Amino acid sequence: MELTFIILVGLLFTVAGLVCVATVVVGLPGAWMLIALAVVIEVIDGLWLSADGGQQTFEWWLLITCLGLAAVGEGLEFAAGALGAKKAGSSRRGMIGALVGGVLGALAGVAIPIPIFGSLIGAVVGTFVGAILGEMGAPEPPTMRDSLKPATGATIGRILGTLSKLPIAVAIWCALSVAAFWP
Fold first, then answer.
1. Which of 12, 46, 61, 78 has the most CB atoms in a 10 Å sphere around its CB?
2. What is the residue extent of each domain of the chain?
């Protein structure tokens, strides 16, 4: 492959990857989009370079490692809401409610007509409502006022969990961007 083409692909990937990383802040799966972009480039490399035996852009072990890192980031994000609820004094039901509510809220948030921020708003609201519903579903439910503290803790945890994915996405971006230029 020509050096100019390698540099062009590397630059385009790096810029597109930076956009993917920025979407993590608003609750979108930027790390997954970045890895998907790298896999697309790798598949194209495989089809294009297989005939002349050229070197591919990314090593498969790097892509698999990045997948593992992205999975850890997702786990952190979803667990943080439940841990925030627990830290604020939630019951087990409230923690499970926060976890389920956050996932359902993120999925439903795609329908919120606020571009990019809809899924984040849905996840935060879903975590809050899920924690309250979980607390209220106990055999001896607390008052609504007593349910607000664990729900607020779950919401703060969810936001911090989303932000904890950012350094992971940056690490994935750095590794893949360096690999895009490395012959």
1. 78
2. 3-181
